[in-house]
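user: can you give me the structure for this one chain? tokens are fine.
assistant: on it. calling the predictor now.
[tool input]
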Amino acid sequence: MRLLFFGTPEFAVPTLERLGDGPHTVVGVVSQPDRPRGRGRTPRPSPVSACAQERGLPLLRPERVGTQETVLALREWRPDLGVVAFGQFLPKRVRELPAFGYLVNAHASLLPRYRGAAPIVRALLDGARETGISVMRVEREMDAGPVALVRRLEIGPDEDAGHLGDRLARLAAEAIAEVVDRIAEDRVEWRGQDPAAATVAPKIGPEELEIDWAQSARRIADRVRALAPAPGARTRLDGELLRVLAARAEPGRADAAPGSVSVTAGAPLRVATGEGWLVPTRVQRAGGRPLEIEAFLRGRPIPDGTRLGGPAAGPDAAG
């Protein structure tokens, strides 16, 4: 088959690479325009654009996919099927453009749970023990199309969003390849989703980055995992931003106010929570680089009894 690939993020790169290896032909790639990235804010291609360029694949980077000019360009590629991992709404005339009349997408959840932009983060925030990939048809309603294939994946007890996202991206690549083969061989079967069982996974808001030390250590550890390696769960140390990038929950009664630091000889630094203790293992100061907690404390000791949290003091220089 002739495949048209819509993609932007790093998550989509393994799928493009897998499809690019055959047996089908990727006739064109559509991605977002180059955007300012990194500290220098230099315009750079999206991960999918960079992959397409490395492989010599035809590439379009329109501001809006649904324009008449873009649609005409897509038709010239004569695709049989479209594969999507994109960041724009795709209008009906794009969704139905391929010869088969639809596009497919690999969503990083067990649909109908966690429909939306942040399924990996939301699953970790909820302390979920299992997630997966659902390959579905793309329809107007977000992530609500019928499903052809589900692949389940157990979440590691200390796994963060970065590591889990990498594993899911590889799983998505194989799942998409399998469904494309089924479509080509006319043996794909679609199963409708149960709307009553649907949950949503909206994009993370700035207010959700802050650690609430009154929560249990387990809940806070889940938040740290869900937001690592970026943007990172955040608190304040003497009014300055501190990102907690890795931590573990420690059971036991916390005999101090939530957010209070306990430092004792021969023991790791601990922070009191509403239930139990949180043991940070990797942190980052505003404007600094991520450090293991031992290295951080060598340069910036935290006295016993210090209280973390409180109002912001100045701009978020670590973001």
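assistant: here you go. The chain has two domains: 2-197, 206-299. DSSP finds eight helices and 15 strands in the chain.
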